[in-house]
Amino acid sequence: MDWIISDELGLTVGHLVGWGAAGAMIIGGIAPYIPQYRQIQKTQDAEGFSLYVCLTLLIANTLRILFWFGKRYEIPLLLQSIVMNVTMFIMIHLCVNVRKKNQIIRARERIFTAQPDETARWLGQQSGVTGGEKPRRFYDMDRKYFWAWTDFQSYVDCMLVFSVLGAAITYLLIEVSPFVEFIGFLAVFTEAMLGAPQIFKNHQNKSTEGMSVSMVIMWTCGDIFKTAYYVIREAPTQFWVCGSLQVTLDVVILLQVWWYRHNTAAARRLRRGD
């Protein structure tokens, strides 16, 4: 009787641990962005946080969702991707609003979809659009302003276009195994490069001012846990290989925190007016 109870208890504990790990995978990924969100909200300064971090995660998780339709991995990993995409849009919304508030001189609107300009007006006249009629409008796809638009809707529109195109291609090639495997690799590799935009931003600024160190520490802990989870749960090879790369980039950012510590302290004093 004792061994039966022991077996049943072990099974229950195993289930609880599994559910706990799955729950941590689903919502644990958003935890690092809470201190960064609060810091931006408190200082009303979003310059230290790279929006390309959001772009990287949105692309990675959208590709991972598409990968699920070709190779059914665990549901918690699918839910994690959905939750992460929502979180990234919340971060973008905050950053766009803060940057708008901090504009001393109102700059030209930059949007993803339709942007009226002199060329559009000229072409509108050539096509017979006159008077009160609106001229033709064109996509504002200047590389200089890509992912640096001035309204939140542009970021949503961009990801909608990417998602629809990705879904259409995946639907057509869903039976092609090499393509499905490539989508999976591209998804986790893109996520693995998450730290790269922040590393570049820190290198440009020669400082980590405006970046939440707590966020990076939580990134590192989360990525170590995530990589271990992939190995233990025997997730596709792409997951744990790229997870290891992601941990490496996290460590590089932490080294930047130490390397630029004097510049960061000086930038912080300047911002406070000390």
From TrEMBL:
Gene Ontology biological-process entries: phospholipid translocation; retrograde transport, endosome to Golgi
Source species of the chain: Pieris brassicae (White butterfly)
InterPro entries on file: PQ-loop_rpt, SLC66/Scramblase_ANY1
Membrane topology: Multi-pass membrane protein
Keywords for this protein: Membrane, Repeat, Transmembrane, Transmembrane helix
Assigned GO CC terms: cytosol; endosome; membrane; trans-Golgi network
SMART domains from the UniProt entry: CTNS
Protein name: Solute carrier family 66 member 2
Residues that span the membrane, as ranges: 16-37, 49-69, 75-96, 154-174, 180-200, 212-232, 238-260
Gene3D superfamilies linked to this entry: 1.20.1280.290
Compartments where located: Membrane
